[in-house]
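Box S2. Input/output pair 1.
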Amino acid sequence: MSDKSLRSVNRAAKPGYVIPPHGRGALRPFQPGQSGNPAGKGGLYQEAQRICREATPAAARRMVELMNSKDERVALMAADKVYERAWGKSKVAPDDDIDPAVIERRQTLRAELMDFLQEMAKPEALNQAETPERGCAPSRREVRGTDTASDPISSAERTR
């Protein structure tokens, strides 16, 4: 094997010049339209893209109709597609290997949170004061009535 054949493949190209794809011959300047795809995208592709774009509103309306289907699988698939079209696909793949105990804990926490939010939405819950009987910390007004020498917040306020 001669050094000449290796030299032509391994040499660096000057800026603005290209090495021919066969690896032989001299460097030649880049010629616009003579490399890559000089004819551009085919007309058939652009025509198909135009037809699909025109049909998009009708397809979106049909997906929304399918979301109200009695078959839960169809409704879920349609809702998933509508969500992906509206907000984009998730960048993180779903993790199917979640421990069942973690799933159960999440469901319990979600149920507790929903119960709490429903309770707080009631008008009488908004008017109630936070008291230690309900499991909340005492208010500052209640703390100020006690011995403040051992209270770090009150002693810090006194030194200001």
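Box S3. Input/output pair 2.
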Amino acid sequence: MPTANLTDDERRRILDELLKQSLGGKLPRGVQARVAREFRCSDASIGRIWHRFCETEAKDGLGEWKSRIKQNSGRKKQNRDKIAAKIRAVPIEERKPNRRLAHATGISNPSDPDDLAAGTADGWNIRLSYQPANSPDTNTLDLGLFASLQALQLQQPVYGIQPA
């Protein structure tokens, strides 16, 4: 599960800890991992903070540690209960074409002509597509298929790819 982004105060405390333990501008072995465990974040995050501080300090003498992420970044939260209620409000016979369901619920369809036109405006080439869930059922079905093929091969020897 991803953790929240580090605040500027946390970044400053991390940098203070790294500066305390650095020797001549270099971090001794294991310091990065130890600080990452202490602040409950990844080694890579600590490395990025240190690298950016060293880079900006070398350029202008002022090391930068603050986050470059603007406020309210990322995807806006959706209330799934509201979306499910909208879908349940549409009769089952009206749900089948995705276009009808999208129109009835107000939920956009990736192949909506308005969205496609907006995605290609000003020389952009943005395409939206549904991404199937990473379902364990599909993996099970694949494994079942391969198991049945292997069972057939054990019953009768296979010498090529030609059908028997």
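Caption for Box S3: Residues 95 and 101 are 5 Å apart (CA to CA). Residues 80-123 form one domain.
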